């Protein structure tokens, strides 16, 4: 019975990654179909007077979903091409100025745009943007992504705004303000950091292993030889954070 139970658990653990992948892909595809369905219905209505057989085919469930998906992908492709063109960038600047005139929409749009640009950038900030920070207490570490650096002043140290994604949904998380002297800079890319977070720590870059000591006088992090490019910083004695 114990062996049977172990095999059942092994089977479940084997199928979970496939199930999660299928669920996410299905969610994205279903969302694209929902976006493209109005266009497919409109096309069917436009051809109905002259080609009723074609309109009936367009309204068939499976064909309508396939056409809606194709139209949504084509729409996203065209939006990407326009956004990368000179004229498209000018149009986007005009849209930005129009949105900035709306009080509530301005805040949401600006914050979302800034986060996406920060997460999709090349990450060149003091070597890398992926860091470890002390969270939720000084004896624990969590992977975060630096989104902004605040320069030091005569009365305050240099600070960093760090976005800490949650597992398994990295689109939600926390924003922590941390002195840069207490950050541990990793040589991970943002994609590697996201894979590590979404997988619950199972997918780490290469054979990297992390360990630290609760003793504040010792180095908080020691990278394995598999990650020689790591530029970990020892924490400076800070009284507040």
> Care to count the β-strands?
7
Question: Looking across the biggest beta sheet, what order are the strands in?
Answer: 4-3-2-1-5
Helix content: 40-55%
Q: Name the helix and strand elements from N-terminus to C-terminus, one letter apiece.
A: HHHHHEEEEEHEE
Computed over alpha carbons, the radius of gyration is: 25 Å
Structural class: alpha+beta
Discrete helix count: 6
Please give a quick description of this structure.
The chain is built from 6 helices and 7 strands; from the N terminus they run αααααβββββαββ. It has 241 residues and is α+β, with helices and mostly antiparallel strands. α1 runs antiparallel to α2 and α3 packs across α4.
